Every structure is written in structure tokens, then in C-alpha cells.
């Protein structure tokens, strides 16, 4: 096997600042750090652009924010929390859990807060990543792990005149808690996972709420309830019971992959449930009609709520479905020519999940910008983790590892386990780096894209799961068990291993 082209000069061994540099301190980054530590790898650093840990759970603080995956599953398998207050605990509690993990595993000294990753460049001569930060530092690392997640770049709608609006406006991910809604006329744009959580909270406070819906979501009742004090005590005393509880939630959620990925026709049953739910909740037949989706449930994220439809029955709430023509200084003009005076606009318009990294953030050997490549072809990686041509770089929650049916934390734990094996294998071979083979990555993605065509996500709707060209770069098209099974053991032959100083590739074949 020939050495990769970027081997240009034998180098004396260079000691990096840290062995592993992790970007982000959400669930993903922290999970990586905890497992590195457990594996006895203490040379790591986490870069965090903000002043606290938590990732999306730090950023999203809008009223009503909660996870739509039950808390006993939406938490680390190795750090059960018997004290969850509800089946679906609210954001502040999830954030407290994340802080608890940070303290318990002694991660704070490893975290550089208020330090944003700006640019990561791979230096072929030393086989090190050079990470440029917003504070002007350059940190070198052997391994680079991105725990940035796909939901951190807010989307603002492209509407004529938006910048001329003189009232208050903010995105759901940047909620202004100082803003007093009392007596205000408020427009909400978007009816996705975030909006259906905050609309019921805001509706009772405002004078008027105009909810601009482009596409109705499918919404089902949420099986939420308080956890009983005796359940919390039992879980504390007998942790295996909590594990059982978690497992049954996991299996119940996992079974939904049958409808999402194997036989989307099963989703017709969900559509029936959704229609019945609308009928039971919404009084006005015309409003029912507007709220009934015309695509298969699951094609866009399936939502759960017990108070969304009730909020839409309120006399001060209007569902606007005519679309927005333009925004003026103090009003919104609809496509049918109405002018709606508003004091505030809240954007519940989501995130750029299909375009998760910025230009210049990951520069490989030979100066290749990963963003440019992903922008052109759609984000692609091997099991969402490794990208050919970018040695020793790993993604958590990377391309095609998102889920519509189960907990993303299950996927993150599988990815962390895989990455640790990569690190071990590099050392075992006395190499400096590994790089997934292009043909392996291509074959994986070809198969994945073929499979995803038969899932519910390709059944004919537009969603943030897909790019404009229709390519789905965000979701794992199968059971999470399969992902776990396929990533639980590293297949070293999938990678080329290289050692800089000897200028040779130590490939397995
Ligand atoms: P989202 O699901 O992408 O929803 C965005 C909404 O904005 C959609 O209704 C979309 O309409 C609408 N929209 C976008 N551009 C628009 C425009 N120009 N004019 C009118 N409407 C426009 O965003 P999100 O609600 O912030 O949620 C994003 C993701 O975050 C979720 O899918 C989920 O993965 C995650 N999340 C999770 C939870 C949880 O409980 N786990 C909670 C919140 C968020 P169209 O449908 O027509 O595009």
C-alpha cells in the first residue's frame, strides 16, 4: 500500500498539546470525554463556545422546552438518574443532568469555556490537527472529535422586508426571557417541534397570537406524567429496575422503526390516530381541515403534545395558512393581501441540519475544505463518524445518524465506543493516524441512500432531513440496534493506517 499523497516529509515526532480535542460540551462531547477518561486516556480538552455546558439544552430555553424522548432513555446508559420528575422532563432538568455529569466525571478542568473553534487544519507533516480558536490560540491535537451536533445553526426565513420590522423578533433558540408578552400581538412563524411546545405557553399571555403554518405537522398525544415518589425511591434502591424501565421504553420506541423504515404503510395507522386526535381536540371543522396534514406521518418529524391543539382553540389565537408575502415595520402582509399588525415575531423556523458545518472549519491535507465537499455532494461519512481524506477526525451525531423514532444518545454512545477502538487500533499498529478508505465510505453511502429511498422520509414531503436536491443526509435509515451491531467492532480493514516518520502506510491488507 502506498503512502497517502499528503505524506511529504518525514517528521520528527511532535508532541501535541492534547491527544484528543473535542468540540462542544453537549451530550455528545461530554460522552466522548467521559469514556476517554474511563479508558485511561486523560489527555483531552473540550472547547466550548459558550460559558456553560449543555449544547442544544443550554441554547434552547424557550417556555415549554422539553425532550420528546422519555427522560429515562434520553440520558446516558452509564449514568441513570432515578430522580427524573416526569416521563418527559423539561429542559431545565435536562440541563441540570448534563451539569451533574460534568461535575461527577470531573470534566470542568478539561473544558475551555468561551472558546469557539474557528478552523481546524490537518498538518500532514506532523499528523496533527491544528485547531484555531476565536481567542487566537492554536491548539494541536492528535485526534479531533466534533460534538457540535446538527441543530445549532438557526434558520431565519427568507421573507421580503423582514429586516424592516421594527418590533421585537427572536428565534426560538435565542429566547428573550425579558420580553413581556402581556397585551402584545405576536406572530409565530413555523409549526415544528419547537413551536408546538412554546405556542401553548405564549398563547395564554398575549393579546393576539397569529401562528403562521406552512405545513401542518402530525401531532399525537404525549404519554407524559409525573414520576411517582415511590418509583424514584424504587429506582434508587434497585437500579436494575430502572434499567428494565429504560429497556422497555427503548424497545417500544425501537419498534417504531418498522413503520418508519421497513413498511411505511404501517404509518397509515398513525395517520388515523392523528386525525382522531384532531377531531377530539379541535372544535372548528375549518380549523380541523387546516391542521390535517396531507403527507405520511413520520415524513416530517412526528410530534407529540397534549396542549398544542387546545391552544389553537383559543379565541385570541389564529392559524394563518395563507403564507407571508412581506413583512413591514409593524405588520405582516399575507399572500391573500391582509395586513396583520404585530408587536413581535418569533421564529420557530428550525435549524440548518443538512448543512451542519461552516466553510473553513475542517481543512484536510492538501487544503481540502470539508464544507465545500459536503455542500456540493451532501454531507457523507462512514457510519456518520469518519470522513475519507480527513485523518483522525471523528464526528458524533454526524451525517445520516439522526433518528425519527428513538434516542440520539443511544447512537452517540455507539459512536464513542467505535472512536475509542479507532484510537486503540492506531496505537496497536504503532501508527500516527487512520483514514477511512474512500471506496469503503462510498459503498456504505451508496447502500444507505438506496435504503433510505424506501423509508417514510422519502414518501413525498419536504423536510429539513433532506437537501433541496432530495438527498437525505441526516437520518439513519434503519433500526438503532443495527447501527449498534455494525459499529460495535471496528473493522480495521476499512481504514488505512499510517506513520508519518516512516512514511509508510500500515494498512491491514
Ligand atoms: P423544524 O421542525 O424544522 O420546524 C420549522 C418550522 O418552521 C416548520 O413548521 C417549517 O414549515 C417552518 N418554516 C420554516 N421556514 C419557513 C418559512 N420561510 N415560512 C413559513 N414557515 C417556515 O424546527 P424546530 O421546531 O426548531 O425543530 C427542529 C428540530 O429540533 C426537530 O425536528 C427536532 O429534531 C429538534 N427538536 C427536538 C425537540 C425534542 O423534543 N426532542 C424539541 C424541539 C426541537 P415546513 O414544515 O413547511 O417546512
TrEMBL record:
Could you tell me which InterPro entries the record lists for this protein?
FAD-bind_Monooxygenase_sf (IPR051209), FAD/NAD-bd_sf (IPR036188), Flavin_mOase-like (IPR020946)
Alphabetized Gene3D superfamilies for the sequence = FAD/NAD(P)-binding domain
UniProt GO MF annotations: flavin adenine dinucleotide binding; N,N-dimethylaniline monooxygenase activity; NADP binding
This protein's cofactor list reads:
FAD
What keywords were assigned to this record? FAD, Flavoprotein, Monooxygenase, NADP, Oxidoreductase
**Entry's Pfam families?**
FMO-like
Would you identify the family this protein belongs to, as annotated? Belongs to the FAD-binding monooxygenase family.
Q: Return the protein name.
A: FAD-binding monooxygenase
Amino acid at each position: 500500500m502506498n503512502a497517502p499523497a499528503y505524506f511529504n516529509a518525514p517528521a520528527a515526532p511532535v508532541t501535541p498539546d492534547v491527544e484528543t480535542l473535542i468540540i462542544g460540551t453537549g451530550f455528545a462531547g461530554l460522552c466522548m470525554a467521559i469514556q476517554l477518561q474511563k479508558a485511561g486516556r486523560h489527555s483531552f480538552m473540550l472547547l466550548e463556545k459558550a460559558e456553560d455546558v449543555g449544547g442544544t439544552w443550554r441554547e434552547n430555553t424557550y417556555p415549554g422546552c422539553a425532550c420528546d424522548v422519555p427522560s429515562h432513555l434520553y440520558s446516558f446508559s452509564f449514568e441513570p438518574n432515578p430522580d427524573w420528575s416526569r416521563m418527559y422532563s423539561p429542559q431545565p432538568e435536562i440541563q441540570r443532568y448534563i451539569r451533574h455529569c460534568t461535575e461527577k466525571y470531573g470534566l470542568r478542568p478539561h473544558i475551555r469555556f468561551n472558546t469557539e473553534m474557528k478552523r481546524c487544519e490537518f498538518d500532514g507533516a506532523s499528523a496533527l490537527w491544528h485547531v484555531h480558536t476565536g481567542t487566537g490560540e492554536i491548539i494541536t491535537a492528535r485526534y479531533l472529535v466534533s460534538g457540535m451536533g446538527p441543530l445549532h445553526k438557526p434558520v431565519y426565513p427568507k421573507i421580503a422586508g423582514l429586516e424592516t420590522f421594527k418590533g421585537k423578533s427572536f428565534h426560538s433558540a435565542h429566547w428573550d426571557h425579558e420580553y413581556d408578552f402581556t397585551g402584545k400581538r405576536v406572530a409565530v412563524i413555523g409549526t415544528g417541534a419547537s413551536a408546538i411546545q412554546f405556542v401553548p405557553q405564549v398563547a395564554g399571555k398575549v393579546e393576539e397570537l397569529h401562528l403562521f403554518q406552512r405545513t401542518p405537522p402530525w401531532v399525537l398525544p404525549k404519554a407524559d406524567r409525573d414520576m411517582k415518589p415511590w418509583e424514584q425511591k424504587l429506582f434508587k434502591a434497585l437500579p436494575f429496575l430502572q434499567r428494565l424501565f429504560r429497556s422497555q421504553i427503548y424497545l417500544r420506541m425501537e419498534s417504531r422503526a418498522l413503520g418508519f423504515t421497513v413498511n411505511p404503510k404501517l404509518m397509515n395507522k398513525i395517520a388515523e390516530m392523528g386525525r382522531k386526535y384532531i377531531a377530539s381536540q379541535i372544535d372548528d371543522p375549518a380549523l380541523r381541515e387546516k391542521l390535517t396534514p396531507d403527507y405520511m406521518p413520520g415524513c416530517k418529524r412526528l410530534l407529540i403534545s397534549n396542549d398544542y391543539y387546545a391552544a389553537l382553540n383559543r379565541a385570541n389565537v389564529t392559524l394563518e395558512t395563507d403564507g407571508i408575502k412581506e413583512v413591514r415595520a409593524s405588520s405582516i402582509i399575507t399572500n391573500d393581501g391582509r395586513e396583520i399588525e404585530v408587536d413581535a415575531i418569533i421564529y420557530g423556523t428550525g435549524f440548518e441540519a443538512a448543512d451542519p458545518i461552516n466553510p473553513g472549519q475542517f481543512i484536510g491535507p492538501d487544503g481540502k475544505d470539508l464544507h465545500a465537499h459536503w455542500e456540493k455532494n451532501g454531507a457523507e461519512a462512514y457510519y456518520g463518524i469518519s470522513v475519507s481524506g480527513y485523518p483522525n477526525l471523528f464526528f458524533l451525531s454526524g451525517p445520516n445518524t439522526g433518528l425519527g423514532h428513538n434516542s440520539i444518545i443511544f447512537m452517540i454512545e455507539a459512536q464513542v465506543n467505535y472512536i475509542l477502538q479507532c484510537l486503540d487500533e492506531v496505537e496497536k499498529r504503532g501508527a500516527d493516524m487512520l483514514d477511512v478508505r474512500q471506496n469503503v465510505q462510498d459503498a456504505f453511502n451508496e447502500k444507505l441512500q438506496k435504503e433510505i429511498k424506501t423509508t417514510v422520509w422519502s414518501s413525498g414531503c419536504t423536510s429539513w432531513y433532506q437537501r433541496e436536491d432530495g438527498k437525505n443526509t441526516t437520518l439513519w435509515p434503519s433500526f438503532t440496534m443495527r447501527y449498534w451491531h455494525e459499529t460495535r467492532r471496528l473493522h480495521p480493514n476499512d481504514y488505512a493506517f499510517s506513520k508519518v516518520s516512516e512514511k509508510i502506510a500500515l494498512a491491514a491488507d
